[in-house]
Design goal:
CATH topology of the largest domain: D-Maltodextrin-Binding Protein, domain 2
Number of helices: 10
Strand content: 15-25%
Strand order of the largest sheet: 1-5-4-6-16-7
Helix content: 25-40%
Radius of gyration: 20 Å
Number of strands: 16
Shape: elongated
Structural class: alpha/beta
């Protein structure tokens, strides 16, 4: 029976899937062989796979990794969540992870760092997210925000009370909980909401974390709070959070699987994994990534995200097969 996967606030999954909870460096495990080795006995794969990056993609990768445990019980998959930028730092800089989870495409500066260090990679889109703005349930007076109102909250002169967002809102304190600068969610939100208006910098006086669980906890525990993160993290705590609709200029649209699939929701974004091509020469890495693409459509809805169309996944599988053949 397939497990039902939901993001749990403050919960880390620990089995043969090893999880670095909120840190850039996964904890060392005595059982796991060093990065770059492929111990085999009787034809069975063993060793470790190191993954880090987006806290948005992390629960999806964890779900796939737990399914993979049944197929390759001697492979330890270490999954960290240092943020998309933090993951690319390790992926392109130190080169000590084979896979980077990302909630945005790789940026030019990061790609240049990879090139500088001789690291080639393959980009694989594994799903779609409806980035979700949330408030504390006590905030009963708002159900939808326009782009201009979001800019009033998130811009450099960010509102500190709700009446500064819309004059007919009450003069109640507005606390902001949001991702830090290493997060792909932070980058996407800025690029989508601020940059089209020529706003280069968001507010700095907010409660920042690379861990979406901590952001959710902050909003839940703070009257008048507002924040944003991946759709899965809202679904995991829908009874404790209030999701806001977003008006990007054509009326209020609520975040949902349906509005993400038909592209009517203005905060829809892609989810990726990036894999070092040299790592695909390691049998356990090639096997795990192949399993990821073959399995992701079966677990992604349970995690809380939106599956890719079958044709797009088939294209990603073809790209991967070519990369594996080239790596060998």
């Amino acid at each position: 029976m397939r497990r039902t996967w939901r993001v749990g606030i403050g919960i880390c999954v620990m089995a043969l899937v090893a999880v670095a909870c909120g840190g850039a460096e996964p904890p060392a495990t005595e059982e796991a062989p060093a990065l770059g080795t492929d111990a085999t006995e009787g034809g069975e794969l063993s060793g470790s796979i190191e993954i880090d990056g987006s806290s948005t993609v992390e629960p999806l990768t964890l779900a796939v990794a737990e399914e993979y445990r049944a197929q390759a019980p001697d492979v330890v998959v270490n999954v960290g969540r240092s943020g998309t930028g933090g993951g690319f730092e390790r992926f392109c800089g130190t080169g000590d992870i084979q896979i980077a989870d990302a909630s945005r495409p790789i940026e030019q500066e990061e790609a240049d760092l990879c090139a500088q260090n001789g690291i080639e990679y393959v980009e694989l889109r594994v799903g779609t997210d409806a980035l979700t703005m949330v408030t504390n349930p006590d905030v009963q007076f708002v159900d939808c925000l326009t782009t201009e109102e979001v800019q009033a909250i998130w811009g450099p002169d960010g509102a500190t009370s709700w009446d500064q967002v819309r004059p007919d809102f009450p003069a109640e304190p507005l606390a902001v909980f949001a991702p830090g600068a290493d997060s792909g969610t932070y980058d996407f939100f800025n690029e989508t909401v601020l940059e089209p208006a020529g706003i280069e910098q968001p507010r700095q006086d907010y409660n920042s974390s690379e861990d979406d669980n901590i952001i959710a906890q902050g909003v839940i525990g703070t009257p008048g709070a507002w924040g944003y993160f991946g759709f899965a993290f809202f679904q995991a705590s829908a009874d404790q959070l209030k999701a806001l609709a977003y008006d990007a200029g054509e009326g209020c649209v609520e975040p949902s699987v349906e509005t993400a699939q038909d592209d009517s929701y203005g905060l829809t974004r892609p989810l990726f994994i990036y894999v070092r091509t040299d790592a695909l020469a390691e049998p356990r890495v090639a096997d795990f990534v192949t399993f990821y693409l073959n399995t992701v459509s079966g677990v992604i809805a349970d995690v809380g995200y939106i599956p890719e169309p079958e044709a797009d996944l088939a294209e990603a599988q073809m790209v991967l097969e070519q990369a594996i053949a080239g790596a060998g």
